UniProtKB/TrEMBL annotation:
Pfam families found in the cross-reference section: Nitroreductase
Family: Belongs to the nitroreductase family.
InterPro entries on file: NfsB-like, Nitroreductase, Nitroreductase-like
Organism: Arenibacter nanhaiticus
SUPFAM superfamilies the record matches: FMN-dependent nitroreductase-like
Domain Nitroreductase as annotated: residue spans: 9-186
One of the record's GO molecular function terms: oxidoreductase activity
Protein name as annotated: Nitroreductase
Upper classification of the organism: Bacteria, Pseudomonadati, Bacteroidota, Flavobacteriia, Flavobacteriales
Keywords: Flavoprotein, FMN, NADP, Oxidoreductase
């Protein structure tokens, strides 16, 4: 655990990436596994993850991300897109997967299916979009921690125009919305922010033990 904390202290929101360094296929596979293993409410994973290496596509996206250099200089751009709307199929698809993976007859899951649908399918469209975006952020947290553990730099980013990202990536027609993005790669020696002391609230101000 001490190594994990050391790695979290090592990481920072990288502002300048070394364009000559790329994340290996093997490490990228580990990061995708970490994203896949992220917890989500009811295990539904109501989002999609786009891993973008193509430079031409990233150049198209860069103006929609306020021109930030990380979009094109990092090894990869990761887009976490939440479902904006869904019906009973979200629950049905998940429980079909549960049935196949765990060898449970689907009829044994009908009660749970009814319960889940009563909680998530009945939400308003606005609440659905808010809820699914929160789930995408959980996956982002897992990505950042896994990247730090592999000594891969990352920068979570909210500075972008979601509607423009959606248009360029064709997400709206798939009931998806760009919730948050992150760039991964390796820090440039010229990035002065890597030398800044990490600023956080004290444990006493942040955490209350009851």
């Amino acid at each position: 655990m001490s190594n994990y904390i050391d790695n979290l202290n090592w990481r920072y929101a990288t502002k300048k990436f070394d364009i000559s360094k790329k994340v290996s296929f093997e490490d990228l596979e580990l990061l995708t596994q970490a994203i896949t293993l992220s917890p989500s409410s009811y295990g539904l994973q109501p989002y999609k993850v786009l891993i973008i290496e193509d430079q031409d596509l990233r150049k198209k996206l860069q103006p929609a991300a306020w021109g930030q250099s990380q979009i094109t200089d990092a090894s990869h751009l990761i887009v976490l897109a939440n479902l904006t709307n869904f019906g009973e199929e979200l629950v049905d698809d998940h429980l079909n997967n549960v049935s196949e993976t765990r060898g449970i007859p689907s009829e044994n899951l009908e009660g749970y299916a009814t319960f889940m649908k009563s909680k998530v399918v009945t939400m308003s469209d606005e609440d659905k979009a808010t809820w699914t975006a929160k789930q995408a952020y959980i996956a982002l947290g897992n990505l950042l921690s896994a990247a730090a553990d592999l000594k891969i730099d990352a920068c979570p980013m909210e500075g972008f125009d979601a509607s423009e990202f959606n248009d360029i990536l064709g997400l709206s027609s798939k009931n998806l919305n760009t919730a948050v993005i992150a760039t991964i790669g390796y820090r440039s020696e010229e990035d002065e922010t890597q030398h800044y002391k990490k600023v956080r609230k004290s444990k006493e101000n942040l955490i209350t033990l009851l």
